[in-house]
């Protein structure tokens, strides 16, 4: 049920009044709310699992990882809050000794708006909420109308566990969000597509509200027409790569959540001479990643809605010019799209020029090695993530240094967030600002203060140090 648009002004003004009383300032209040979030997860595991399964076809392991991620963020904030919320004295240079002493005082923004997408419908609400509460803000949450079961559960549970003077849930789609965005907020955190990100940024600009935008960075048709090149999360497989690892980790990084996640591997550029071996290894790895029969396997999920099944099927129905080497089947009634690998589609095919956000992996052979891969990626707007597989350190270093991206992994896909000490965020079309863990508090690394983007880079173990492979299998 949608929140009446007439209620938006009072929801925001009530929260603003609470904030003005200083309700959320004491660390004891913030910590108690954080503990209530952990209890919300612990005491509603079954309901959360059913809702996530109904919306996303999520399997038990994935649900556990998602819920653990929320609890990990709570525990991190609980254990570091005393220190992070404390004012820090800064060193005084000799020429300012006579002037005084400086300290940096962390201050909550005030009323924060969190708008979330459907693809991780619980986590992408809760993780920013944890950050906003820990920092002492009051919060309006607008979960996604597309993930209807999870959103209904969030709306039911939040008032039972959190103080309604500090956190409110607004339900609805475009009309309700538009009405909400007319209100003045002190910070907006938006996760979703780049096109709507522009709408949010424009609304925020009217009130000079700072925004944290976590975007896809890969679906803006207008921007695409300008640059005429792919701008999605790339994987480059160099000829020196450990091919079994490159194949399996790329598949996990594409087919987890049926490809419905923002840092998924969107396409693979591979040196032509190793493409046959990569294809062979991918075919061998596919049953391990998605099950021998993905349709009945516990290892594979479902597409969020029939409309999205149709959108994804269109990539396969058009004349894409490639060869389907695995998968290709679509069953609309059960919202199932087979994990599909397409070899050498044409550059102007939809699957190489639009955001797929589904389980299709295009493979593109290239002849110019690392330099061609870098120029191909940098020719477009900045992706949220860019991945390289190479045992040749010079190649990996060149990729890290030269490719512009929100974050990266060397010899891994999509596991760069497995560390509470690193930031997550995009650059350019893939977003602005960063958050999670240690960076929830550190505005110094956000665009407003710093002029350097801090690109998180994971250098994953290969060879003898296969611990990460096990970790990956556990996670995805
Ligand atoms: P979306 O942009 O369609 O919707 C996200 C939210 O915005 C929803 O809550 C929706 O109600 C609201 N919304 C939609 N249209 C609106 C409008 N015109 N005005 C105001 N609000 C509006 O995104 P989605 O389809 O829910 O999610 C998929 C997208 O999210 C993908 O593009 C993906 O790449 C991106 N994504 C990014 C990240 C990240 O961290 N960078 C994470 C997950 C998903």
Automatic annotation (TrEMBL):
The keyword Lyase does not apply. GO terms for cellular component: cytoplasm. GO terms for molecular function: aldehyde dehydrogenase (NAD+) activity. Pfam families: Aldedh. Keywords: NAD, Oxidoreductase. InterPro entries: Ald_DH/histidinol_DH, Ald_DH_C, Ald_DH_CS_CYS, Ald_DH_N, Aldehyde_DH_dom, Aldehyde_DH_NAD(P). This is Aldehyde dehydrogenase. The lineage of its organism: Eukaryota, Sar, Stramenopiles, Ochrophyta, PX clade.
């Amino acid at each position: 049920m949608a929140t009446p648009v007439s209620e938006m002004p009072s929801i925001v003004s009530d929260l603003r009044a609470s904030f003005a009383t200083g309700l959320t300032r004491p660390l004891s209040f913030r910590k108690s709310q954080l503990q209530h979030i952990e209890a919300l997860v612990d005491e509603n595991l079954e309901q959360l699992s059913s809702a996530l399964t109904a919306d996303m076809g999520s399997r038990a392991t994935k649900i556990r990882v998602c819920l653990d991620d929320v609890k990990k963020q709570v525990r991190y904030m609980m254990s570091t809050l005393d220190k992070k919320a404390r004012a820090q004295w800064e060193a005084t240079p000799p020429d300012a000794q006579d002037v005084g002493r400086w300290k940096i005082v962390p201050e909550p923004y005030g009323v924060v708006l969190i708008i979330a997408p459907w693809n991780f419908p619980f986590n992408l609400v809760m993780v920013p909420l944890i950050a906003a509460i820990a920092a002492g803000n009051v919060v309006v949450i607008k979960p996604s109308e597309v993930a209807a079961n999870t959103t209904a559960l969030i709306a039911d549970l939040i008032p039972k566990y959190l103080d309604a003077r500090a956190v409110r849930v607004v339900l609805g789609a475009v009309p309700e969000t538009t009405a909400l965005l007319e209100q003045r907020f002190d910070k907006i955190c938006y996760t979703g597509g780049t096109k709507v990100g522009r709408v949010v940024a424009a609304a925020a600009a009217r009130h000079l509200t700072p925004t944290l935008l976590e975007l896809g960075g890969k679906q803006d048709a207008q921007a695409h027409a300008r640059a005429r090149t792919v701008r999605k999360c790339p994987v480059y497989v160099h000829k020196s790569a450990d091919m079994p690892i490159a194949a399996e980790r790329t598949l996990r990084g594409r087919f987890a959540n049926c490809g419905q996640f923002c840092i998924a591997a969107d396409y693979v550029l591979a040196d032509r001479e190793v493409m046959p071996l990569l294809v062979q290894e991918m075919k061998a790895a596919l049953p391990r990643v998605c099950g021998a029969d993905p349709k009945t396997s516990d290892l594979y999920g479902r597409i969020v809605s029939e409309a999205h099944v149709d959108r994804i099927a269109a990539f396969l129905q058009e004349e894409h010019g490639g060869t389907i080497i695995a998968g290709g089947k679509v069953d609309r009634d059960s919202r199932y799209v087979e994990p599909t690998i397409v070899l050498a589609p044409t550059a102007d095919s939809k699957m190489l020029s639009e955001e797929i956000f589904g389980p299709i992996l295009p493979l593109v052979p290239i002849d110019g090695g690392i330099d061609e891969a870098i120029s191909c990626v940098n020719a477009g707007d900045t992706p949220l993530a860019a991945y390289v597989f190479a045992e040749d350190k010079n190649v990996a270093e060149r990729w890290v240094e030269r490719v512009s991206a929100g974050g990266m992994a060397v010899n891994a896909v999509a596991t760069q967030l497995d560390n509470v000490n690193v930031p997550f965020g995009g650059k350019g079309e893939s977003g602005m600002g960063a958050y999670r863990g240690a960076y929830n508090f550190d505005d110094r690394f956000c665009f407003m203060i710093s002029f350097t983007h801090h690109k998180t880079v994971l250098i994953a173990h290969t060879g003898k140090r296969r611990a990460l492979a096990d970790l990956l299998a556990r996670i995805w």
